[in-house]
Amino acid sequence: MTTTLSVDELRAAVARELPGVRADLEALVRIPGIAFDGFDFTPLERSAEAVAELLRREGLEVQISRIGDGHPAVIGRKPAPQGAPTVLMYAHHDVQPTGDLRQWVSEPFEPTERDGRLYGRGAADDKAGVMAHIAALRAFGDRLPVGVVLFIEGEEEFGSASLEALLAKHREELAADVIVIADSGNWDIGVPALTTSLRGIVNSFFTVEVLESAVHSGMYGGAVPDALMVLSRVIATLHDDQGNVAVEGLVSRPASPLDYPEDRFRAEGGVLDGVELIGSGRLVDRIWTKPALSVLAIDAPKTSEAPNAIVPKAKAKLSLRLAPGDDPKSAYEALKAHLAKHVPWGAKISFEFEHDGNACVIDTTGKYFDAARAAFKEAWDGTDAVEIGVGGSIPFIATFQDMFPEASILVTGVEDPNAKAHGPNESLHLGEFARVCLAEALLLRNVSLA
Ligand code: BES
Ligand code: MN
């Protein structure tokens, strides 16, 4: 059996590979692969092909797989040396839409470096996750001490509709002892983290209708309720006066003991002076382990185009985040029941489900978690990893917990508090990215020795 690289050799190897990794990351960022309904899906084909090519170059056996008209996932495999464990590496190659282009300082799909950060949609979430896995493979070259399976999904940001079917289809090929999910982030610049809980999610649409079509607001106003006003009244019942979610029957639980100072949270989020935070209890509970309900969008006439007419119909997109332990199906029923109960004046309502995903909690005991903690500490020059929760969702994790209950699931990632994933001017901290790549290489080494 080949002896594995030493820590010093890996440090040197990662440093040697970083410029190439950076160049390949930039090439991926230039491909605008968005899996949201209504977008051109051809870039997703190109980005899957680009990822597949990167994996082939590392000597992996590669296939591009999809279910029906779902988006392409890339699966690459290299069998384990005799007696060695297998590591499944997850990331996603699709990205969020850009949102308002005027808010971007540089083009979203033209990677641009400013002040040690690489700006671009997907530069962090999650193309840097893809490249961190590849960096670790490159560092080892032909001396990889573990078996690897890369699973690079192509529709994570749109709710992973075909994920369960994909996992079922490739169950045998994906079996692993350790799963590294590089789609989360670290606690701060210079402080690594292992993510140990994520929230679930239910996205849906809620429509209110009051009239067959718009009518004169002077002739009918005063007696006919308008759809926007009805919708607003229903939406206003979704939270109590403190801003806690008022839907009955949702789970809440306490988060980790970590303290997230409120001023740091406000600064990182760019919360305007004077705007109060909502919800009660500790900040980490509110953002990691209690439900949250956000109104993401409302379809209604544009203010610049609105006539003096009563709005007949209005539609809201609601995003409900769920505490670990809650169930998306029953939570959606609870939300619908709440909305139906609070509709005033007999307005007609309808619901439309978009997608959901399970929350998860990860128990971090065992030799592979110790291997990860040691790797992180080494990569961050002696700083211990902290265990964090995340308010976002990665539905893949719960699915994998069910399918492979024996596997250790390490949720890592490249995001730092200023990454601005999903917002304008998303970026990757290049210094931290180098540490993430090194940590992943060290992790594979430690796993092989565990
Ligand atoms: N990378 C995020 C998950 C995440 C969010 C990790 C915040 C760490 C901090 C992931 O790509 C994501 O955004 N997922 C979606 C999932 C949804 C579409 C089912 C999300 O949370 O909105
Ligand atoms: Mn992501």
Record keyword descriptors for this entry.
450 residues, alpha+beta, Aminopeptidase, Alpha-Beta Plaits, 6-stranded mixed β-sheet, 4-stranded antiparallel β-sheet, binds ligand BES, binds manganese (II) ion
Detailed description of the structure:
The chain has 450 residues and is of the alpha+beta class. It has 2 domains: 282 residues, Aminopeptidase (3-Layer(aba) Sandwich), CATH 3.40.630.10; 116 residues, Alpha-Beta Plaits (2-Layer Sandwich), CATH 3.30.70. The protein has 13 helices and 18 strands. A hairpin with a 7-residue loop joins strand 1 and strand 2. The longest helix is centred in the N-terminal third of the chain and has 23 residues. The site of ligand BES has 17 residues, from strand 7.
Give a brief description.
This protein is of the alpha+beta class and 450 residues long. The protein is 33% helix and 23% strand.
Question: What is the makeup of the main sheet?
Answer: 6 strands, mixed
Q: Could you estimate the helical fraction of the residues in percent?
A: 25-40%
Tally of helical segments: 13
Name the bound molecules: ligand BES, manganese (II) ion
Tell me, briefly, the overall form: elongated
- Described by its quaternary structure, the protein is single chain
| Domain tally | 2
CATH class of the largest domain: Alpha Beta
The percentage of residues in β strands lies in 15-25%
- How do the strands line up in the largest sheet? 1-2-6-3-7-17
What is the mean predicted local confidence, pLDDT? Answer: 97
The CATH superfamily of the largest domain appears as Zn peptidases
